[in-house]
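User: I'm curious whether this sequence folds into something compact or stays loose and floppy. Could you predict its structure so I can see for myself?
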Amino acid sequence: AIRKSKVLAFEDLGMEAIYEFEVHDMPVTVAVDSNGISVHDTGPAAWSKKIVELKIPVTAA
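Assistant: Here's the prediction. I'll summarize afterward.
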């Protein structure tokens, strides 16, 4: 849970401001690595390859 929050910059942007959070027992997923590469870009390609390698049948909904 978020225990405390503090606006660090751009307070006038409201929800888009930059915040510092103090959290406790809050698992998170980081979607961008230290090189700025997004898992949203690399993930779909990696899993598509894995699905082919594992021969998992894929059907359209």
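Summary: The mean pLDDT is 89. Residues 2-53 form one domain.
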